[in-house]
Write a structure and sequence with these properties.
2 domains; Lyase 2-enoyl-coa Hydratase, Chain  A, domain 2; alpha/beta; 16% strand; 11 helices; 267 residues
Length: 267
């Protein structure tokens, strides 16, 4: 008999709380287009079911919440992480589904969260992290750029100074510093993470649905309206194109594949 297909996204409903588990532990729960599109579809189904009042998103295992976009998938989809996402980009689609879900979505960060995985966690309404988790945004170390829509989430959550620190140094930070700068709401030992998260999710699910959905929409409206001027948008597009055509861009991808430190020349 053929082996049963392993699902990349596992859905578990219990009472009024639903868990979405990113199930790619062998790839440190890296994100693929198919997984993100499925997340969008499942969130819409859950929303239409009208039973769930709180969502928990987590990674499978205890190594990573998500290590970011699958590097092999990035290679197949030109400039996925190097240009501003369009509305039909899978990460944008999944992010909008989280934002548009009427009730709170909790990221239970049960391991490391990098790149697009960290952005996905930031899109959630609350973040609860295990105390040995690391967080990072590596574009500067790969010779690529990140999107304005993604950076905007960091600006609104942790402010200008800490956003610049994360993106311009490319350094990872630990869970304690992530809590200090407001990147996560709570930090717990591994033994307490799951129990704390689901107790909070259960408490949230008992709150007034109309009140929660209205307040979530109000706070999301602030996030949506931080737009670039047309001039700045065109300037950034020109800069993005220059990055995409640079030798450093090619060197960053090559060095990553060869597991070595890149040698950037600024051209």
């Amino acid at each position: 008999m053929p082996e049963a297909e392993v699902k990349e996204l596992i859905i578990e409903e219990k009472d009024s709380v639903c868990t979405l588990t990113i199930n790619r532990p062998e790839k440190r729960n890296s994100l693929t287009s198919n997984l993100l599109i499925e997340m969008d579809s499942e969130l819409k189904k859950i929303k239409n079911g009208q039973k769930t009042r709180c969502i928990v998103i987590r990674g499978s295992g205890d190594k990573a919440f998500s290590s970011g976009y699958d590097i092999s998938a990035i290679g197949k989809i030109k400039d996925d992480m190097m240009r501003d996402y369009t509305d039909d980009h899978p990460l944008i689609i999944a992010s909008k589904a989280i934002e548009n879900f009427p009730y709170p979505v909790i990221a239970m960060i049960n391991g490391h969260a990098f790149g697009g995985g960290l952005e996905l966690a930031l899109t959630c309404d609350l973040r609860i992290a295990v105390d040995n988790a690391l967080f990072g945004m590596p574009p500067a170390k790969l010779g690529v750029i990140y999107t304005y829509t993604g950076i905007r989430k960091f600006l609104n959550l942790i402010g200008l100074g800490y956003t610049k620190e994360l993106f311009l140094t490319g350094r990872n930070i630990d869970a304690q510093r992530a809590e200090k700068i407001g990147l996560v709401n709570y930090v717990l030992p591994k033994s307490e993470l799951e129990d704390f998260t689901y107790k909070l999710a259960s408490e949230i699910s008992g709150n007034a649905p109309l009140s929660m959905s209205t307040m979530k929409e109000m706070t999301n409206s602030w996030q949506k309206n931080q737009l670039m001027s047309k001039y700045d948008e065109e300037l950034v597009k020109e800069m993005i194109l220059k990055v995409q055509e640079s030798d450093d861009y090619k060197e960053g991808q090559k060095a990553f594949a060869e597991k070595r430190k890149p040698k950037f020349q600024g051209r």
